[in-house]
Amino acid sequence: xxxxxxxxxxxxxxxxxxxxxxxxxxxxxxxxxxxxxxxxxxxxxxxxxxxxxxxxxxxxxxxxxxxxxxxxxxxxxxxxxxxxxxxxxxxxxxxxxxxxxxxxxxxxxxxxxxxxxxxxxxxxxxxxxxxxxxxxxxxxxxxxxxxxxxxxxxxxxxxxxxxxxxxxxxxxxxxxxxxxxxxxxxxxxxxxxxxxxxxxxxxxxxxxxxxxxxxxxxxxxxxxxxxxxxxxxxxxxxxxxxxxxxxxxxxxxx
Length: 254
Prior knowledge:
The chain has five helices and twelve strands. The chain is α+β, with helices and mostly antiparallel strands. The protein has two domains: 17-108, Alpha-Beta Plaits; 115-221, Pseudouridine synthase (2-Layer Sandwich), CATH 3.30.2350.10. Strands 1, 2, 3, 4, 5, 6, 7, 8, 9, 10, 11 and 12 form a twelve-stranded mixed beta sheet that branches. Strand 8 and strand 9 form a beta hairpin. The model has no long low-confidence stretch (mean pLDDT 91).
């Protein structure tokens, strides 16, 4: 894991934390489930929902901005997103040039990301590369993703812990090779192993049953690792960060 060096103060939400920082201006945060990566446009002023950073978000520039204690303007550019219910590692950078470099690395699939999910598999788990053409649809103002004639979603899947515990749940690792909307949640659902706690593509009856019994009521999807190498000027930056599994996952699996 890339070590935390001294970093400038940042108005991060109290439910999130800085877990790594590179002096070039790369930040790694651990986002809690239920926290937005950034506020929706209508929430910039209402501020009813919690976001990663307690600051104004510029949707055109894709960055947070705030005044520091010296009355100087500060920025944090987001390079990717995590859905609100998903916890784990999310990256941001301090400068527009670095944001361009890092976004390009994501677009060119040069950033390795690993996610972990708790699922209940109704059949044999098939490890390997999952391939699904997905389409984004809108119904009554809500965004939904389904299998169809759309761009291909690619994910490498493997089993971490076989079925066990009181509820026969498994822990799987998912390494997305593409970045489609709701990709991991939909691909798990298509294989009859919806991610526990998924309120859009999940097994709603199972979600309610386990939430009542365990008090764990969240989407059990966690962004566990990010690794990248980028070139900035004459410097090559190797950056790796990981976030441990939430305790609630262990509670479900034992």
